[in-house]
Structures are given as structure tokens and as C-alpha cells.
Design goal:
The structure holds two protein chains of two kinds. Chain A is α+β, with helices and mostly antiparallel strands. Chain A contains three helices and five strands. Chain A has two domains: about 90 residues, Beta Polymerase, domain 2, CATH 3.30.460.80; about 30 residues, no CATH class. A five-stranded mixed beta sheet of chain A has the order 1-2-5-4-3. By secondary structure, chain B is of the alpha+beta class. Chain B has a domain of about 90 residues: Alpha-Beta Plaits (2-Layer Sandwich), CATH 3.30.70. In chain B, about 10% of the residues lie in helices and about 25% in strands. The chains are: A alpha+beta, B alpha+beta.
């Protein structure tokens, strides 16, 4: 399958075709894939990469579910365009990303993925988990105080959260 | 046994208090208290800046109310001190009853197995890992 949309990357990996695309081609690429027979959006996932950078990945397959295509883009929180007009299931995943990560998808309907009240965006890397604030890190114990080893820090915990 | 990963067993004399399991545990459920004392078995060098020390384990706790059963501590332990055990995990009326100390963790040793399926060392056996036999 050759695509007319401009791609920034195209490779075979883990039994799937991985396509990287710029944010402005995100919607048009999915529309083209859908015209090519890739009518099934299996999921859409968003990952926070620090600051205002996000990676958004979709997995799209044809009706045989034999040749999956993974589409990936790197964007900031205001760049993405919704895919819910092409694939209705995308609405849930995009509302989830909006609620948990603060990614704003242009054209996405109002509403929330989860009914529970969620303060802030807990899946962002700079979100301080209560469990990490309540308790000092057990790994800070150094049995041999004179050993003068390099000071170890808790993984994934920012300095300003420390007790 | 339907659940071979029921509890975690500790062989206390194998543990060197290296703190690796504590620092790698994803939800901070292991805690160790230990102190260092001079190692009488270590070679004595006349130009040593300080005597060779060894860590002595004072307390080792796994809080099973937080544990994920991920097994990272068991796979990571470089001294073969932690094992999966088939001893049943017993629930408790309060959280403190599922915080296991050295004695409870060592009580899981008889049904504990290494990752390769061979039986784990028992309390009266010497350290079987890389820790020096003394």
C-alpha cells in the first residue's frame, strides 16, 4: 500500500507497519487509510513526554485484522485534530486523553471519559501522586553511612515533591 | 497448588542489605533497616583508610498490602535472597498483619523455589548466592 500523504517515517516493527506523521497530516492520513480499507481503529493512546510534548499513537487494521498499521505523531497539547468523525470510538480515547493528560483535540465533542471527579491531569509526568508525597522513599536508607556512595534518588519523583 | 506465586520468601543470611530491591520496587513496599560493622573475615591491609565493613540486616519488611506481585525484587536480587514461595498468603484483620518481617518471610522458605525450579536454601543452610560463605 502506498500512501499519498507525506510521511516522516515508515518502517516494519513487531509485526506491524509503523508510520510517523506530522500533526497537520494526522487527520488526512487516517482518512486515506480508511479509504484504503483500514476501517477498524483498535485504540488510540497518548503519552506525555515532558513539558508540552506528547506522542499519540493509533492502531488501525483492516477487516481481516491481519496487517495492523501503527500511526504515531509527536505534538503539543493544542495541535491534534479529532478522529471521531472518521472512527467514532476515537471519541472515548480522545476524551480520556483530554481528561487525564490535558491534550486538546480540535473538534472533539464535550464530555468526559470518566465520571469520577479527577483533579488535574494525573497521567502527566509532572503530576505529583499522593502516594509519593505521603511517605518518604524507603530506598534513601544507606546501611553504611561512611561508604560515601553517590546519593541515590527515588525514580520518577521530582525534587520539589520530596518531603 | 493453583497459585505458585503466593508469597515471597527471604533467606536472611543471604541478604547483604544492598538496597537494590528496595530501590527498584515500583510501589515502595519493601523497607530495610541495616547497619555496617567491621568484617572480621575480610583481608586486613596495612594501608587501608578504614576497615572493611559488612552490612548486617536488622529488619526487612515487605508490605503485602501494597505489593504488586511483580517479582522484580526476586529477579533482581544478585545474592539469591528472595524467592517465590507457595506458602499461602493469609489475610489479616488489620494492615499490620500483612506487613511481613524477617521471621514471617523466612517462614515461607520451606515451600520456596528458585526461578529455575530448584528448592531455595533453608534457614539453617549457608548463603547459596554470591555472598561469601563464612
Amino acid at each position: 500500500m502506498t500512501l499519498t500523504t507525506q510521511l516522516t517515517g515508515d518502517r516494519q516493527q513487531d509485526g506491524a507497519r509503523w508510520i510517523d506523521v506530522a500533526p497537520e497530516n494526522w487527520h488526512s492520513l487516517h482518512a486515506e487509510l480508511q479509504r484504503e480499507g483500514y476501517v477498524r481503529l483498535e485504540w488510540l493512546a497518548s503519552v506525555h513526554e515532558g513539558d508540552d510534548n506528547f506522542q499519540i499513537v493509533t492502531r488501525v487494521t483492516d477487516v481481516d485484522v491481519q496487517s495492523p498499521v501503527m500511526v504515531s505523531m509527536h505534538c503539543d497539547s493544542s495541535e491534534p485534530v479529532t478522529l471521531s468523525d472518521l472512527f467514532p470510538i476515537a471519541q472515548f480515547h480522545e476524551q480520556e486523553a483530554r481528561q487525564l493528560l490535558g491534550v486538546q483535540f480540535a473538534g472533539l465533542a464535550d464530555g468526559v471519559a470518566f465520571d469520577a471527579p479527577i483533579a488535574g491531569h494525573p497521567l502527566r509526568r509532572d503530576f505529583a501522586l499522593q502516594a509519593r508525597l505521603d511517605k518518604p522513599w524507603p530506598g534513601a536508607v544507606e546501611p553504611d553511612a561512611q561508604a560515601r556512595r553517590r546519593l541515590t534518588l527515588p525514580p520518577g519523583v521530582l525534587a520539589e515533591w520530596q518531603l | 497448588m493453583t497459585n505458585p506465586h503466593a508469597t515471597i520468601a527471604l533467606h536472611p543470611s543471604s541478604c547483604t542489605s544492598c538496597m537494590l530491591c528496595v530501590r527498584e520496587c515500583p510501589d515502595w513496599c519493601i523497607s530495610i533497616e541495616a547497619h555496617a560493622e567491621p568484617d572480621p573475615d575480610a583481608p586486613q591491609y596495612s594501608n587501608a583508610r578504614r576497615p572493611a565493613m559488612k552490612n548486617v540486616l536488622d529488619s526487612f519488611q515487605i508490605d503485602f498490602s501494597h505489593c504488586l506481585w511483580c517479582g522484580i525484587c526476586i529477579e533482581l536480587c544478585p545474592f539469591d535472597a528472595l524467592f517465590w514461595s507457595e506458602k499461602d498468603m493469609v489475610s489479616g484483620k488489620s494492615r499490620s498483619e500483612v506487613v511481613y518481617g524477617i521471621d514471617e518471610l523466612a517462614a515461607s522458605l520451606p515451600s520456596a523455589k528458585r526461578l529455575d525450579g530448584t528448592p531455595a536454601p533453608q534457614l539453617d543452610e549457608p548463603p547459596s548466592g554470591r555472598r561469601k560463605k563464612s
